[in-house]
Amino acid sequence: MARELRFIIIPKVAHPWFDEVHKGARAQAEVLSRELGVEIVVDYMPPSIADVVEQNAMLEKAARSRPSGIAVDPVDAVGHMTAINRIRDQGIPMVLFDSPSPDASMTSIGNDFAQQGIIAAERLVKLLGGAGKVALMQGYPTAPNHKERYEAQMAVLRKHPRITVLDGGTDNDDIETARQQASTVLEAHPDLSGYLCCDASGSIGIATAIKKAGRAGKVKVVSMDGIKLILDAIKEGVIESSSATIPKMQGSMSVLMLWQASLGVQMPQAVDTGIDLITQDDVDIYLAGAV
C-alpha cells in the first residue's frame, strides 16, 4: 500500500455547509493516518459558484494532479458531468457525496433525499393544520439531491387541497440569492403561512428575509440542514425546525470509502449517513457540537 494518499473533496460551491463536510473528511484522514501509519492528505477544492462548467473545470484540474481519489457533490446528473466520466476512465477512484448514485458503479454517501423532503413537508403541513399558502424554494434545480427533495415536497403538498403552493424562488445554492427571492415572496404575499426549501442556502436566506420583515413565527419555516446559522435561527424561533443531513459524517465516510477504493475493495452503492429532525427542543445539543 502507498505510504501517502491524497484525496480531493469537490463540493458544489464554496459554502458553510461544505466546510462541515471538509472538517469531517480531515478528521477521518487524521484517524486513518494515525492508525495505519500512512499519511493521508485531504485537499479541498470548492468552485467559486455552483455551475456545471465551473465544477467540470475543477474536476479536470483535480485529475491532472493524479490524486488517490476524488469525492464530488455534482451540480448535475452524473451522466451530464463530462469530467466525472473522463476521470473514471483514467482509473482514479471517485465517490459521490450528498448525491444519489445513478447505478452500482459509483458509491453514494449521503441520505435518502426524497425522505428528507417528505419529513420537512409533512411537518409543515401538520403545523399549518393542512391549510394555507406555502412557498417552496428550489435550490440548484439540476442537482440530484435538490431535485429529489423538491419533487418529494411537491408531492406531499399536492395531497392537501387546502394548501396553496407558491413559487418560492430558486436560490442556485447562493445565500444572498435566497434572501432576495424570499424577500420578494414575503412582500408579494402578506398572508403567507409557510416556507419550505431544498438546501442550506435556502434555509439561511429565507430565515434572514423573514427576520428582517418582522414575520418570525408568523411564517412557519421548516428548513433543510443543520449548520450553525440554521441552528441559531431555530434557537431564535425564526425557523421552526429543520430536516437535516449530517455533513461531517458525509465527509468522514467519503474519505473512508476512498481509502477502501484505493485498496481495490468492492464498494457499496450507497452509504446512508442519516437524517436528523432538529427542533427547539433539542437545538442546544446540536449547537454544542457546532464547532
Give a quick summary of the entry.
With 291 residues, the protein is of the alpha/beta class.
What do these coordinates show?
α5 links the parallel β6 and β7. The chain has two domains: 134 residues, Rossmann fold (3-Layer(aba) Sandwich), CATH 3.40.50.2300; 132 residues, Rossmann fold. The longest helix is centred in the first third of the chain and has 21 residues. The strands form two sheets. Strands 2-1-3-4-5-11 form a six-stranded parallel β-sheet, sandwiched between helices. A six-stranded mixed β-sheet has the order 7-6-8-9-10-12, with helices on both faces. By secondary structure, the protein is α/β, with parallel strands linked by helices. The model has no long low-confidence stretch (mean pLDDT 96). The protein starts with a strand and ends with a helix.
